[in-house]
Amino acid sequence: MSKPDRIKAPRGTFDVLGEQSAARAILEDRARTILEGAGYERIETPAFEATELFARGVGESTDIVRKEMYTFADASGRSLTLRPEGTAPVCRAYVEHGMHKQRQPVRLWYLSSFFRHERAQAGRYRQFSQLGAEALGAEDPAVDAESICLLAALLDELSVASVRLRLSSLGSLAARQEYRERLQAHLRAHSEHLSAEVRERIELNPLRAFDSEHPGTRAALQTAPRLLDFLSAEDAEHFAEVRARLDAAGVAYAIDPTLVRGLDYYTRTVFEFTSDRLGAQSGVGGGGRYDGLVEQLGGPPTPGIGWAAGIERILLAGAPPHPAPAPVDLFVAYEPARDDGREPARRHAPAEAFALLSEARTAGLTAQMELAGRSLKGQLGYANALDARYVAILGAGETVLKDMLGASQETVASDAVVHAVLRGLRSL
Ligand code: HAM
To answer: Which residue among 54, 150, 294, 313 has the greatest number of ligand 1 atoms within 8 angstroms of its CB, and so is best to mutate?
Structure first.
């Protein structure tokens, strides 16, 4: 029979191993401390949702909905989609669980996997993790500022290098509609200078032209009308209040009137944190206000604001937290059976070792035992590599207990090993 082919992980996905996994756990821990300290509660939503949620919530004209969703029909023919983002699901849950009846704002955070069929490259994956925070039910500019400050604090805490904050306001949907028409007129007038992609999107999504790197498009946009000039008096006031609070909190930002985000639900405040460390995929995290989204999903009129940050990008741009190895209080070693066909020195040793391991764990110790058939010398070397504090070497009726820190050893009765280790640890 021929050897089966090796199966690889799909393109744009990756395995999280060893230290990376430990670094993520630390990141999650810091995020929990910061967000729950600020009144956010964790939420977990399903990995897949009705396709309609994203079509309606994220927007039919966005790249995400048009090109990047993993959509499939289930056995009953229902169209489902692996979540490409977390805001629409959180708003769906807010409506579904009647959270508008709770005290507002309702503040929720998540750390989950998301899926987008994008061109995979460093920092851009098809399955990735986002840490996100959403505050629903308050339009006070302080909520915008608080949301931004929390992400700034988190990136700082995780030592993400060379972080910059870009900030803008998209105004209300009505102001944006008027602006959209003016921008479309401008783009049509300069259409011969635009990239084919931007030209094709003039009708569908003209604001995305601001994301283009194409030189002709960029030149044409130099003279384009600016959305910030179209804000209503209330929107301009709201934006000024957000900026005043960020100034008061000492958070540095740059106003960027070309900042448009790739999702349709935004209104008023939008922001993005970038890091120079990331190359092409410089966005570490971003978000904004989405005052119409809950209503669009069938709920009551509800303002909302939030952000999401990519875990992989945070770890790429940061000094990954150095996980301390889990301590091993006790390693249980024993003389292995000889493989020369003769009666092993102590045939029952593996079972005795297992019993001691269980006893130690029940007593609350962190313990490991030999599992790979090493020689006794090999076992001691392994215990040393694990940085085990004590090693028990099982013998007939009694056990040698080595204190690896004190470099001493004593002989103890087999049933007194755990007690001796506990006593030793306590005396530290
Ligand atoms: P987004 O800008 O699409 O916003 O994604 C937020 C962050 O997720 C990005 O800044 C980036 O760090 C990370 N990210 C996005 N796509 C990928 C990918 N393919 N590979 C790796 N990382 C990626 C949203 O998703 C909005 N839901 C944010 C939000 C929350 N707005 C309001 N509330």
So the answer is: 313
